[in-house]
Amino acid sequence: MLATVPQRQRLALHHAGAGLSAAAPLLAGRPARRAETWPGLPGFTAGWQADPASRISTATQRFAAYRRGTAEVELHSVLGFDEDTLERQLARINLGPHRVRVSAGTTWRGFEARWACGDVAHRLVCRGPQRLADFLDLLLGLAWE
Predict the structure, then answer these.
(1) C-alpha distances in angstroms, 135 versus 2, 25, 58?
(2) Is the pTM of this model over 0.85?
(3) Which of 12, 23, 70, 120 has a Cα-to-Cα distance from 134 of 20 to 30 A?
C-alpha cells in the first residue's frame, strides 16, 4: 500500500511514525489520570458554570471551560510538560501551596495563570471583559488546596 503513496507523503508518514515511536517511552508507565486525580486543580465557586461539552480528558491532558456572565475561563492541565517563559509576565503570586505566574494573554484580550503541581502543569486562561484587578480577584476567589 505504501508503494502507491507519493514519495513526499511517504517520508512524512515515516517521520510521524518515528516521532510517535520516540515519544512512547516518555509516556510508558504513566497511569491514566481520572479528572478527580489531577493534583493542584483549584475549586470554582458556585457562580461559575462548567461547560460539559468542552470537557476533554486523556491520559496526558485535561481541558475544561467555565463561564460566569460574559467571562470565560479555560483550564488546561498537561502531564509532564511545563512551558515557563517570562514573556508577558505581570506577577508571581502564592495561592495555597502553589507559586502562580500571571501573564497577559497572547493573541486575544485576557489573562492567564500558570502553575505546576508535581509532574502536572496547569494553565488557566480568562477571556472576556476583565481588567487585571478582576482577574486577580478571580484567582483569589478560587478554592486553592
Answers:
(1) 52, 39, 28
(2) no
(3) 120
Whether residue 43 is found in the same domain as residue 114:
yes
Q: Which residues constitute the domain of residue 22?
A: 1-30
Say yes or no: 73 and 122 in one domain: yes
Residues 67 and 88 in one domain: yes
- For the record, the C-alpha cell of 126 comes out as 480568562
Per the structure, the count of domains in the chain is 2
Ordered per-residue pLDDT tens for the chain, 145 residues: 555 667 776 676 666 665 555 555 555 555 555 445 678 888 887 788 999 999 998 888 999 999 888 788 899 999 877 666 677 888 999 998 999 999 887 656 688 899 998 889 999 998 766 788 888 988 998 888 7
Taking Cα atoms as reference points, which of 68, 25, 42 lies closest to residue 140?
A: 42
**Domain identity same for 14 and 59:** no
SS3 of 97-137: the string is: CEEEEEEECCCCCEEEEEEEECCEEEEEEEECCCCHHHHHH
What is the rounded end-to-end Cα distance, in angstroms, of the chain? 54
